[in-house]
Structures are given as structure tokens and as C-alpha cells.
Design brief:
There is one protein chain. By secondary structure, this protein is mainly alpha-helical. The protein has a single domain, classed as MetI-like (MetI-like fold). The longest helix is centred in the N-terminal third of the chain and has 33 residues. It is flat and about 70 Å long.
Length: 218
Amino acid sequence: MTLHFDMIWPSLPFILEGVVVTLKFTLMSLLCGLPLGVFLALAKISHQKLLRKVAEVYTSIFRGTPLLVQLFIFYFATPQLTGYAISTFEAGVLTFSLNSAAYSSEIIRAGIQAIERGQWDAAQVLGLSYWQTLLTIILPQAVRNILPALVNEIVDLLKESALISTLGEADLLRRSQIVASEKYLFFEPLLIAAAGYYLMVMAISLLAKALERKLHHA
């Protein structure tokens, strides 16, 4: 077996530019998907039956269909249905946000429902409203409990962003494939892409552990 990393090094900056694209997709999807996930979680524990049903159906659809199929539907079907030529970036962020919201809503719902009912009752005795209790007492405790699961969801989101390369977006994976095709060498550039994903995941994990320690001491 012969490796030719010396032929890949000149293309390394081009490949690593894909890291910015990958992180941009992940960050935008997280910023859009997490608030929606919180809303869905609150809807699932709401006393409004219709609201609960809508949230449950939404989650069922996005958890029950492949992410790649969802991506293709938003990218290829949107122009047909609306006449709007959606970009690969918009299609990716929209798909990943909606999909991530479905999964994170279950995590957040479980974290809220894990808090003892007595804390709700004690807050009512103190005269706190439902939203005051939720925002100041329940959610802070739930976040600390579900942080590891939320970090796993962020990591999954980062890795799943590689699917955007199937639409031609120049992310980390796509750029490594371009270099591989130009150099007729596949192992080396794909190994660099794998290392890039691994380092990003490790960075997220280290930041999450630091946050967990801070919350634990707090």
C-alpha cells in the first residue's frame, strides 16, 4: 500500500475551507431547530389536546422518514410546488432544522417531565404563574439533566450535515471528493475529511464537558 499525502497537501486549504461551510450549516440549523424543539416540547405537555396532537404528528413524520429523503423533498420539490428556486444552503438548513427540532423536542419533553411534580405544586403555593415556574424553576433544572443528550443531538447534526454534499454544496466532504477526483486518490482526502469531522466533534464534546462541570458547581 502506497500513500501519497504529498500530492494532497497543496489542496489541503481547499478541503479545509469546507469546515467553515459545515460549521455554518450546523450552527444555523441549531439556532433554528432548537427554539422550535422547545416549542414542540411545550406543546407535547400542554393541556391543549389539538396542540399536543399536532406536535406528536410533526415528530412522527420527521422521525419516521429518512433525513436524505426529507432533504431531497425540500430541495427538488420546493421549486415545483412554489416556483421558488431554493438554494442548497436554504434547503439544507430548513431540512436539518425541522428534523433536529423533532428529535430535540423529545429530549426536552423528557427532561421537563423528569422534574418532580412537587416543584410545580410548591411554585403554585408561592404564587408563581405557569410560565414563571417553567422558565425560572423547571427549565433550568431540565437543561442540566438533558445536556448530554442535547450534545449528542448537536454531534449528530454536525455529522448529518455531510448529506448536503449530495446536492453539490461545497462542504468538507464534497471538497474532499473533488480533490479525490482530480488527483485520482481517494483514501488520503477522505481521511482528511474524516479527521476534520472527528476534531469538530471532539471540540464540541470538550466544550460540553466544561459546561457540565460549570453547571454542576453552580
